[in-house]
Amino acid sequence: MATRLAVGHARQVSLASAPLPAQVKRADYLDVFEVTVAESDTRTPEDLAREALEQSGTLLREGIRFAHKAFLLFHLAPADSPDHILGWRIVESTPDLVHLVADSPLMSGTLILRRTDAETGQLITALHYKRRRAAAAVWRTIGPIHRTVAPYLMKKTVTR
Predict the structure, then answer these.
(1) I want to staple 47 with a disulfide (CB 3.0 to 4.6 A). Which of 6, 43, 96, 135 is the partner?
(2) What's the mean pLDDT in 61-65?
């Protein structure tokens, strides 16, 4: 019998255990985080992404946006654009998935938030390096922050 995890339990999962879209399998950097969601939570992945990224505290939200622009050099849309989430372009949004992209001279970024089943939400982060050495050096600094902040925001958002 599988142990049921508490709502809001966020964890990084093995790439081998996560079915991944073809475009992200070839990424230079790839991670997957899962969070336990209440079955009664009917928010879409787009709703959850907006809450996590656009409705987090001002310092955290602006810190994320600053890091994305100043360090990762992503070209982001205005934060209040309805076709974007915190400046990341929405490529697809369905009741079970939101797919976001951002581009920079160093790398292309993909974020996919999806509901894999009634109790599990997943965040996939994929980076495709354009300037391999420079992008890898920047990500060595920013990556650990991402791996701390992503599960924190996932947990905070699903337990609101």
Answers:
(1) 43
(2) 94
